[in-house]
Amino acid sequence: MSAIALGSVSVLMVGQIASAQTAGVPQNGTVGASSAGAVLDRVVAVVNGDVILESDVDEERRFEEIQPFRSVQDSTRAKIIERLIDRELILQQAALEPEDQVSDQAVDQQLATVRTEIPACKQYHCETEEGWAKFLSDHGFTVAEFRSRWRQRMQLLKFVEVRFRSGISISDDEIRAYYEKTMLPEYARRKATPPPMDTIRRRIEEVLLQQQVGALLDDWLKSLRAEGSVQILAPGEVAR
After folding, report:
1. Do residues 11 and 17 make contact, with C-beta atoms less than 8 angstroms apart?
2. How many structural domains does the chain have?
3. For residue 48, what are the domain limits?
4. Most exposed of 127, 144, 149, 225 (fewest Cβ within 10 Å)?
């Protein structure tokens, strides 16, 4: 999938976008000021009437940091905001074309794999429930929050796959090449033991699929931006 849209496998991570109407956005572009005037949150973008907050940007950054194969160059604040905008556009379209919900079993299976793929998880002993909860807590998430985020991620990937995958197939040679040329060097750089290819074959196929549909997704998102209303706010700027 495109770097701007859902990013590489390191991201694909779907943010929990605050859904509020522009009419409810204070004129100073901030949300939840204390009696002393300290700003607790700020609107950074408005997408067809739905707002994206500074807290969403921070939460997405923390969520990215947990990803097994995250791409550092995609983690700047500006790029995170662009991804959140594109993600919100996709969420809005997905609401108009609902798919079957991702099952609890599918979420459990994928999270069980994720816990073995995050290099930093080893020192936390994420194979245990206590270690996994501690790892997530140190990144600002409860187990329930992270599970909800991951489910939403899976749901969006399913929507994009159904919409764009037609006619695209990933060969075994492509999967092996990605494992050997991309993943193994990354694990070597981190001095971590790589998981066997067969255990993460589905994840690699997902990455390669995203790359193949990227051009189609980019064109679609450009048309959604052109047809809709997207505004990125500078500090102190008022939403139109």
Report:
1. no
2. 1
3. 22-232
4. 144
Looking up residue 217, the CATH number of its domain turns out to be 1.10.4030.10
Sign of CA dihedral 179, 103, 14, 136: negative
Write out the two tokens for 200.
């993460």
| 39: enclosing H helix or E strand | strand 39-47
Tens of pLDDT, residues 75-132: 789 999 999 999 999 999 999 987 788 999 999 999 999 999 898 899 999 999 999 9
pLDDT in tens, 6-58: 443 333 333 333 333 333 444 456 555 444 444 468 999 999 999 999 999 99
Q: Are 94 and 159 in contact (CB under 8 A)?
A: yes
Q: Is residue 15 part of a domain?
A: no
Task: Supply the DSSP string of 141-186, one letter for each residue.
Answer: --HHHHHHHHHHHHHHHHHHHHHH-TT----HHHHHHHIIIIIHHH
In-domain check, residue 7: no
* pTM confidence score: 0.65
Q: Is residue 219 part of a domain?
A: yes
